[in-house]
């Protein structure tokens, strides 16, 4: 055998081996592409997942199409009094319609012994509650936001909730009882049909709003219902009044919340504490949320029963 023939045999073998390897690679790649493609027309696995028609990523933790719990609701917060009322005593002394009678436009409110005014407290708590409620999707309106020289008067405050078509109105206050009197309470509208007052349609939903507020406020703040009003208030946290124009003139569910007693030293320290006021705001927001969601669930249940 010549030297040239001996050299040609390995070359032939190498060519055969390379051909087999190349064929194997082609078969493997074809199988991989078929697996990645899936059914005909399906997108390749390496493509980025869809982010919705807008092209923007969906908000994390929120199923597609699900909004905030209070979307479509209107809440009116009524910060009691006005920090500048003390500079306008003549204006706030004029008498206005309170439904069953006429009474002063507004008052200055109370204050702690150190001078922290109820009007400053109510504005701060209401603003904090507004932030929380808006975060839940509610549209929140104020009767005033410290942006007017005095007032508004009690009839204007009621009208603000009515004209907004509010689903719930909470008037935020703090009490001015004697030292040693402690706790919070919610004031409900009495059933009144006299003069320009007609609360027949709102007493039921206002009571439900009040009950939700009592539970949420107690849970958020650790406060107990007022121990100085007698009756069942210490157990229920609820009382009923027929002399408040803000309730008598309301046509939408409304309550007053007395967050505590500014004239008691221990309570005054709590009311003056920003961290406690944040908890109070959370109690208001959670109580309103529970009331509004309860109303929605009831409406759905009623619709189902009638179907």
TrEMBL record:
Taking every annotated instance into account, which residue ranges of this chain make up the domain MurNAc-LAA?
A: 158-289
User: What PANTHER family does the annotation carry?
Assistant: N-ACETYLMURAMOYL-L-ALANINE AMIDASE, N-ACETYLMURAMOYL-L-ALANINE AMIDASE AMIC
Keyword Cytoplasm found: no
- Provide the transmembrane region boundaries: 7-28
Q: Where is the composition biased (Low complexity)?
A: 41-55
Q: Which UniProt keywords apply?
A: Hydrolase, Membrane, Transmembrane, Transmembrane helix
* MF (Gene Ontology): N-acetylmuramoyl-L-alanine amidase activity
Extract one GO cellular component term from the record.
outer membrane-bounded periplasmic space
Where does this protein have compositionally biased stretches of type Basic and acidic residues? 56-65, 81-106
Which protein is depicted?
N-acetylmuramoyl-L-alanine amidase
Q: What Gene Ontology terms for biological process does this UniProt record contain? A: peptidoglycan catabolic process
Record's superkingdom? Bacteria
Gene source species: Streptomyces pini
- Disordered: annotated segments: 34-112
Q: Which InterPro entries does the annotation name?
A: MurNAc-LAA_cat (IPR002508), N-acetylmuramoyl_amidase_3 (IPR050695)
């Amino acid at each position: 055998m010549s030297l040239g023939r001996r050299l040609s045999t390995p070359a032939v073998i190498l060519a055969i081996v390379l051909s087999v390897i190349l064929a194997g690679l082609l078969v493997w790649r074809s199988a991989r592409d078929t697996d990645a493609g899936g059914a005909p027309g399906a997108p390749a696995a390496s493509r980025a997942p869809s982010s919705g028609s807008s092209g923007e990523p969906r908000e994390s933790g929120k199923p597609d199409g699900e909004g905030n719990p209070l979307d479509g609701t209107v809440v009116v917060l009524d910060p009691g009094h006005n920090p500048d009322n003390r500079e306008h005593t003549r204006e706030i002394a004029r008498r206005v319609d309170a439904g069953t009678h006429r009474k002063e436009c507004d008052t200055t409110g109370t204050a702690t012994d150190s001078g922290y005014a109820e009007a400053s407290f109510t504005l701060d708590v209401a603003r904090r509650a507004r932030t929380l409620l808006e975060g839940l999707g509610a549209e929140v309106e104020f009767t005033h936001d410290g942006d007017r020289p005095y007032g508004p008067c009690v009839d204007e405050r009621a009208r603000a909730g009515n004209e907004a078509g509010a689903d719930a109105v909470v008037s935020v206050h703090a009490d001015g009882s004697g030292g040693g009197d402690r706790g919070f309470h919610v004031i409900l509208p009495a059933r009144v049909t006299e003069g320009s007052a007609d609360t027949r349609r709102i007493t039921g939903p206002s009571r439900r709003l009040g009950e939700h507020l009592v539970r949420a406020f107690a849970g958020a703040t650790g406060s107990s219902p007022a121990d100085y009003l007698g009756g069942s208030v210490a157990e229920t946290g609820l009382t009923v009044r027929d002399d408040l124009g803000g309730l008598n003139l309301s046509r939408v569910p409304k309550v007053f919340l007395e967050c505590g007693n500014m004239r008691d030293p221990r309570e005054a320290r709590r009311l003056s504490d920003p961290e406690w006021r944040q908890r109070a705001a959370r109690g208001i927001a959670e109580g309103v949320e529970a009331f509004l969601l309860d109303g929605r669930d009831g409406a759905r249940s009623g619709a189902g029963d009638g179907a």
